[in-house]
What we know:
- Helix 4 (47-91) packs parallel to helix 8.
- By secondary structure, the protein is of the alpha+beta class.
- Helix content is 53%, strand content 13%.
- The chain starts with a helix and ends with a helix.
- It has a domain at 94-234: Beta-Lactamase (2-Layer Sandwich), CATH 3.30.450.40.
- The model has no long low-confidence stretch (mean pLDDT 79).
- It has a five-stranded mixed beta sheet with strand order 2-1-5-4-3, sandwiched between helices.
- The protein has eight helices and five strands.
- The protein has helices spanning 2-17, 19-23, 26-40, 47-91, 96-110, 128-131, 145-151, 217-234, and strands at residues 115-121, 138-141, 161-165, 183-189, 198-204.
Amino acid sequence: xxxxxxxxxxxxxxxxxxxxxxxxxxxVMRALIAATDADKGRNIVDLRGVAxxxxxxxxxxxxxxHKDVLAAAYENxxxxxxxxxxxLMLLEAADFAQFLSMIDNEIPRMLRLDALRLVIxxxxxxxxxxxxxxxxxxxxxxxGFIADFxxxxxxxxxxxxxxxxxxxxxxxxxxxxxxWIRSEAAMRMDLGAGRLPAMLVxxxxxxxxxxxxxxxxxxxxxxxxxxxxxxxxxx
Length: 235
């Protein structure tokens, strides 16, 4: 009994010296409340305990929401930084050959993509069609292809950026990577008056990389810069 009393006195002294340790420990508080409820018997309901349990549950939900918000904010910041770095790289291209090398290699790696395709509509066998010989990223198509491509699985009103899962109908532009790409972002680009449109397509093996409902502001910005950079070399 003397040992138990000494132990109890030690615990009491520790609690009195730092009560916040007990109050901040969820498991300890739950054990104390459970012990109190057991002493009251089955016929007594502790409404304060019920309220505390509900508040504890709500607090847990708020903490999870807070973590999700922080994670989303971090991803947005990281994505913004990647897009800004890619834009600066495009603007630094010294000639068209370097520009093509960037969209073949550096830009996809920087943006963590598994495929990047620049689709250019043309009515001629030369001109824009000849560009495909200089870059694996360039795909040429007949007029109207881009509108049809972006409308696949979408509402009648075509948005400037379409995020979706890849289907057999859309994977035809990926060449050697066909069958591996699971999600894509398709962006229509205006190359100026008198020219047919172009389209930039970003592909990923991750089926959740590009999904409907995600924000597209950064992609709209990137497509705008990309189209202006491209105009420099085709004017």
